[in-house]
């Protein structure tokens, strides 16, 4: 029985060679429109879909392959006598292979095309062909990727057929493609129609992720990993130098970018380790800000990640190059700074961040399901947006805001101590807020005297303020909201520590 392949591709790469080799193996080629013309002009004998169906293309080419003679030939179950009787009764020829690449909807969106053009680039017939042939993978080989042409031809040449294992893999690849394609249409049309902004998590969220970059392994060597992107989105950074990024690098890079976003109005630097800051500062120059951030905890900064809010100059590059660092990320790098770091630290990963991010949602996988929440920053505190308890300290306001940012970026429970535009102590990731206060003030040491302190959540008891007073803290910023707020406020007044209530909790788990 003659084998039959239906070839309908938008991307013509390699299709002539594929069809020629199939023909040489005795396959009959069925095709339509542009693909048929391409094949025929290159000497491939082609049966037009219109001749197979006995029905012309209509609606300006919108309807070509949507016909029982095509769908029946693909979907017929060869082991089922009734299906084969239907084929014979209606004179439908079985189709054993479908080769199809879809209209480039994503490229059309990226080109800035009009809504009408986008709609015309929504492939209907192609997706139907792929789903039908993938559904009937026991009998039909479906090819969606030019890269698979060679492997399929090799199997046909060596074994005379395509193995069930290969057909299964190709079918799953086809379903993944159509799923991604639908997700891209959803994203593209949502944006074009102006309804892409969701105020709360939608009932259904099509993720349709595609690997943007493979990774050597995950958090540990026994875990496989990759970084994935959503439809119509690109990674918001470019690697300029250094070793490939790892899973842990990307987690830390995320923290660095969040720190840079918090300090974007200032010349600032953040040094992170294991996704949480070990130093954060702002200064009159980038190198000054970096040195102040590093001084907070230079021991933990070893092998850390640096985020900088301004273009890296040579002076800053020289400072960075004198320490072992895994990643430095910034809006840009001066040529001489880039060259210096490439020579001094060839393994250092240098990342140019464009300020963007992939999704407005934060998505976390748990054993109990996928958690989704808005990836929405809390507003920066302003003196008019909160409440002072005790005598206001406008002279310490800039330090209070920086402390708030450092606590915001740190893992909960978090306490940040800041003096003269730099963190001098950070207590993060503690199960007890009191322990976080103790750690942060102990790390600050004598620098805690006259410094300010921020907490990412309310003080459940007044003991945290008492420890802050013992360390010499001059002012505190915290969100409030505890059932014991009145007790904490009374203690602040009693201790003479001005306290600003921002009313915004900033937990980070």
Commentary on this structure:
The protein has 3 domains: 4-192, 3-Layer(aba) Sandwich (Rossmann fold), CATH 3.40.50; 235-353, Cytidine Deaminase, domain 2, CATH 3.40.140; 387-501, Cytidine Deaminase, domain 2 (3-Layer(aba) Sandwich), CATH 3.40.140.20. 38% of the residues lie in helices and 20% in strands. The chain has helices spanning 15-24, 33-41, 49-53, 68-75, 81-89, 105-110, 115-120, 125-135, 149-159, 164-193, 247-262, 286-296, 314-321, 335-344, 397-409, 433-444, 463-471, 485-495; strands at residues 4-9, 28-31, 46-48, 97-101, 141-143, 210-215, 225-229, 237-241, 268-273, 276-282, 304-308, 325-330, 349-353, 361-366, 369-374, 387-389, 415-419, 422-427, 452-455, 475-478, 499-501. The strands form 5 sheets. It has a 6-stranded mixed beta sheet, sandwiched between helices. It has a 6-stranded mixed beta sheet with strand order 16-21-20-19-17-18. The chain has a 5-stranded parallel beta sheet with strand order 3-2-1-4-5, with helices on both faces. Helix 12 (286-296) runs parallel beside helix 13 and helix 16 (433-444) packs parallel to helix 17. The longest helix is centred in the middle third of the chain and has 30 residues, at 164-193. It starts with a strand and ends in an 8-residue tail after the last strand.
Key words describing this protein structure:
Rossmann fold, 38% helix, elongated, hydrolase, Cytidine Deaminase, domain 2, 18 helices, 3 domains, 6-stranded mixed beta sheet, 20% strand, 509 residues, alpha/beta
